[in-house]
Amino acid sequence: MRSRPFLIAALFLLTAFLLPATAPAGASANVAGAAKRLDNLRQKPERLRQFLRGMPKGTDLHTHLSGAVYAEAMIRWGAEDGKCVDPVTFVSTFPPCTGDQVPLSDALSNTQLWDQILGAWSMREFRPDAFSGHNHFFATFDLFGSAFSGRQGDGLAQVTQRAANQNEQYVEPLITPQFGATLAIANQVGYDPDFGSMRQAMLDAGITNAIPAAGLTATSTLDRRSDLQGCETDDPDTGCDVLVHFDVQVLRNQPPAVVFAQLLFGFELMKADPNWAGMNMVQPEDAAYSTSDYNLHMRMIKYLRSIYPGENVTLHAGELVPGVVPPSDLRFHIRQAVNIARADRIGHGADLRWERNPGQILRSMKNKGTCLEANLTSNQQILRLYGKRHPIRDYVKAGVKVTLSTDDEGVSRTDLTAQYVKAVRQHGFGYRRLKQFAQNGLRCAFLTPAERKAALADQNRRFRKFEARFPTR
Questions:
Q1: Are residues 375 and 340 in contact, defined by beta-carbon separation less than 8 angstroms?
Q2: Does residue 92 sit in the same domain as residue 193?
Q3: Residue 160 above 50 pLDDT?
């Protein structure tokens, strides 16, 4: 039912009016108690995780829906849907099974096949000394794509329930809407360096005709999640209370006309449908078109933002380290995402220290209010960037609004709590900084002003309840 997200938003608003505007007496003492408890648990990872799992975390802003689903669920869904898999390459396909392909249902009783598929479709027991974490990670999406097809609502139910279990309020999953329709328009119109003329030609060719289908993708996904979680019943799952908006995924490793068509469609979709709150560009930042056309993509976004000034943009920027690309490609990705595309948020920002004048970039991000979506597990698995080599402390020290995200928690075999654990154990952050990360998430989220006000009020209530468990003596 479409009513559920609006009901949750209404409850957020009601909460904002009912909660007191200021923290009650003793709140600061309880913060000190929570901070002391975290410090006592720093060297006790299992107990630290229990503590942080219950801590309010606000939101996971950087999460790809397909990548957020654990492979075990995809195998089961694929088996139910009669999907197939190649037992050598582990590529899933639609039925009927041909050649050497076998039904995915075989994996349910064949333990070896089950384990092999899990290893191919995720970072489960991945050994970075044997293969490239970067290559293995990005290859998973082409392997499980068919198995996940048609199960977006099931995946969303898994994601929102996991979020609720970790005291999150909001998620913003990335989905690619109507790629086939935008590809057809791009091929029909072709590329024109005059962005205004190309936009008009694509509008005249009917690119907005796919908006109803994209809207149906969002509503059907939400409806399926609602049905699975019993959100319209008298006994709904706690995952129903997690508010959801979607971000448009634009596949950046495509020819220029295709990228522009996706961007244009995304802006038109956000303008037409409130379920679609933002836009991002995905696929490896070091791929062929991604690198050669990076500046062109940023200029496309700059142009389209001038036509659609009210829409939201977050960008994968700087998901790179030396060796992944030539040195010249490490020098400008974050800078151009911030200063040319004027992204509201950037994801990763991992190559900061190799960019030209990183101090200027940090000052620019702080002054513009550009937020950072830090993905600690993802950066460690894909880029081998962790601990002191990771720039998260540079962003924090510069006053940039930082929030923690999972990126692809299913593929990475992680969750949002694990990001907070890494922030403590690898980077030395304390409770007050983690609380700031959680608050930043809601401040940086693509919520309406009313939704944001209500969500922050609800978060304050959750923190007061959590911190009351740790009074100072």
A1: no
A2: no
A3: yes
The verdict on residue 55 lying in a domain is no
Domain that residue 259 falls in? 152-462
* 468: in domain: no
Amino acid letter, 470: F
pTM, entire model: 0.93
Strand pairing report for 92-93 and 168-175:
unpaired
Integer Cα distance of 353 and 385 in angstroms: 12
Q: Are residues 264 and 388 in the same domain?
A: yes
Q: What is the DSSP letter of 361?
A: H
- Any idea which of 12-26, 64-78, 281-295 has the lowest mean pLDDT? 12-26
Q: Are 450 and 14 in contact (CB under 8 A)?
A: no
Measured distance CA(162)–CA(454) in Å, rounded: 22
**Whole-number Å distance between alpha carbons of 214 and 276:** 9
CA 187 to centroid of chain Cα atoms:
29
Q: Are residues 221 and 130 in the same domain?
A: no
Overall number of domains in the chain:
2
Three-state secondary-structure class, residue 372: strand
**78 and 194 co-located in one domain:** no
The answer, yes or no, to whether residue 28 has pLDDT greater than 80, is no
Cα–Cα distance between 176 and 173 in angstroms, integer? 10
Burial of residue 188, with CB atoms counted within 10 A of its CB: 0-12 exposed, 13-18 middle, 19 or more buried: middle
Q: Identify whether 417 is part of a domain.
A: yes
Cα–Cα distance measured from residue 148 to residue 154, given in angstroms and rounded to the nearest whole number: 9
Domain presence at residue 327:
yes
Longest CA span, the chain: 71
Kindly state whether residues 309 and 401 are assigned to the same domain: yes
Instruction: For residue 473, give the amino acid letter.
Output: R
Q: Supply the pLDDT for residue 114.
A: 98
Angle at 34 between CA 32 and CA 38, to 5 degrees: 115
- Chain segment 324-360, per-residue pLDDT in tens: 999 999 999 999 999 999 999 999 999 999 999 999 9
- Which of 101, 123, 148 corresponds to the end of one domain? 148
Which of 106, 131, 148 is the last residue in one of the domains?
148
Angle 320-252-257 from CA coordinates, rounded to 5°: 145
Same domain, yes or no: 319 and 441? yes
CATH number for the domain that contains residue 443: 3.20.20.140
The per-residue pLDDT for range 258-290, each reduced to its tens digit, is: 999 999 999 999 999 999 999 999 999 999 999
Task: Measure the CA–CA gap between 438 and 432, rounded to whole angstroms.
Answer: 10
CA 23 to chain centre: 31
